[in-house]
Hints:
The structure is a homodimer. By secondary structure, the first copy, chain A, is α/β, with parallel strands linked by helices.
Amino acid sequence: MAITIADIAREAGVSISTVSRVMNNTKPVSPELRERVYEIIEKNNFKPNALAQGLITKKTNIVGVVIPDISNPVFGALTKGINSVCTKKGYTIMVCESGGEQEQEMKLLDVLEDKQTDGVLFAGVDINQVLVDAMLKKQYPVVLVTQESAVEENVIDTVTHDNVRAVYDATKFLLDNGHERIAYLGGPKHDFSSGKKRLKGYRMALEEAGITVPDSYIEQGEFSFQSGYEGMKRLYEENSILPTAVVAGSDLIAIGGIQFLNSVGVSVPDEISIIGFDDLDFATCLRPELSTVRIPYFAEGEKAAKELIKFMTGSKEKAATHYVPHKIIRRGTTRAKSK
Amino acid sequence: MAITIADIAREAGVSISTVSRVMNNTKPVSPELRERVYEIIEKNNFKPNALAQGLITKKTNIVGVVIPDISNPVFGALTKGINSVCTKKGYTIMVCESGGEQEQEMKLLDVLEDKQTDGVLFAGVDINQVLVDAMLKKQYPVVLVTQESAVEENVIDTVTHDNVRAVYDATKFLLDNGHERIAYLGGPKHDFSSGKKRLKGYRMALEEAGITVPDSYIEQGEFSFQSGYEGMKRLYEENSILPTAVVAGSDLIAIGGIQFLNSVGVSVPDEISIIGFDDLDFATCLRPELSTVRIPYFAEGEKAAKELIKFMTGSKEKAATHYVPHKIIRRGTTRAKSK
DNA sequence: CTCAAGGAGGAAAACCTTTTCCTATGGTTT
DNA sequence: AAACCATAGGAAAAGGTTTTCCTCCTTGAG
């Protein structure tokens, strides 16, 4: 039913090869023929069948994107960045949702392989040896994004932000503002997750400052509003001496925490300062606006896509880890401690 | 390099046809052969090349998704719903971002055609005659989602929510709570956009109640926080008699509006009630929590995908418009007016 | 004037499946 | 016992491109 290159060739009175050459500029064709063929292509609005093309060229111009959760704004921004450069370079993205589960992630890697994607951008939660091995076996190049692997350095190209350093900086920011009793409200304690890295950054900063915190100052859970609310509640109930500042593992956690504090009449930032992580659009919709550390997810997506394209086009071979810079955003929920 | 069906056939000592038959259960094969072939497939972890398959079967098991903005939480939820049923039915989605621009939308329709997608889910902003014509010309079935076309009924299958009715209900809700001076803070006034429909719902409810509002009670702009803030500011500055309630065209607008009111010391809901639209996750992260009308975007995505699959599998022919039910969610930002 | 070389175009192979069309075998029916 | 039929399996076509390999013609050099 659909029109094929053969139809064009027939109508133009030339061979199939010539039509192909006109379209791909792959060999000289005389101006008159070129003209005639072009016209007929235009007239019929002919587009070559990408399947047939892919079958022979072994290129589909599709890149797979694996993320844990499509509706999570962090991955929304990331995907938007990815799509932005992919579109610009003529690639279309195939988005897959893993739910953060390894079994599903493995399956998606397979699906994307037999769909013949030219490459894959992978945003995992806990990238262990099994996953890395699976990726290395694949036909296509992979670049990790948002989350580095737990395996020896630079086996797979990676674009991410420095979780340890970012939370270190956030904690340092509070320390520099005179706080000493600083608690941590974090995400999952999954082995190689970003949650663990963020906790490490917090610990580093305190240790460096020579401050020891009680275990009851550290709460972990999910990266969600609910979890933040409950974490803060435990913090509040289990400590007779309250912290003067809190580092949160995500903006949602921070907001949940603030909400709890509001509900018990503790003022932010007057009594407790709190700093988030991510810088969601929403952070500026609160009053006071949320202080946080900004991770440029859109830019991270862009960079990862560019990196992947380098591999796909063969202009790069060696894997490396690239960090995208974070930034402390001082807004209304943090304040210097009066001595 | 990659292993093909021929390799399997050779190794098993059977013909290519037999291997294909084993994999697709398309014709009886003796148990022994079947067994032997299966084993070798397993051993080599063979997966047929989807391109070659698609070329001959004319099915790719890919569905295209066109949305205005990947990072918008509304479309995030929608896409998640779509992906949920697609995955379950063996389809993979190809997500494209249009920026809400018609030119780009047309281009994407073309791209998805020559990628041979089996069908397309289209979330537009202003689906006019030109767009509808383009869709009807395509090889694949299309179903509109979130936004119906401006063209005569039921040319293209549609899954959406009733924007007019939803805002009508929201306005009615305020009326029923004793409010009479009700303002509207809306989205774009684009010709066939949901913004226009929502405004219509507002007008209908007031008209029905026999209430006339001054033009200065109606503000339009974008569906954003910023726009809500500014719209409310104008409302506040241009009216000597303030409304006692405000209907917002989106949650973000509502939140922006509330933020402005807070900044000038007007209490929500004590002095002004406000109701949003969408029910973003965020609505419950505010204090007071946002009253709103919930649109089940996830379910809408699911339903649209199911609808599309019916068309793709030929089990349905006739286009129709399906509405997904909205619901008024009473939370903290609305209150009955004391007489 | 002859021969080599280069340029323009066509025929056909290749890519990897599914599916149609045959063939052979063994069993059933009359 | 002959004719027929069903069944299992193979060979090859088809699907729509790109690309290799030819061929033919023109041009330039010797």
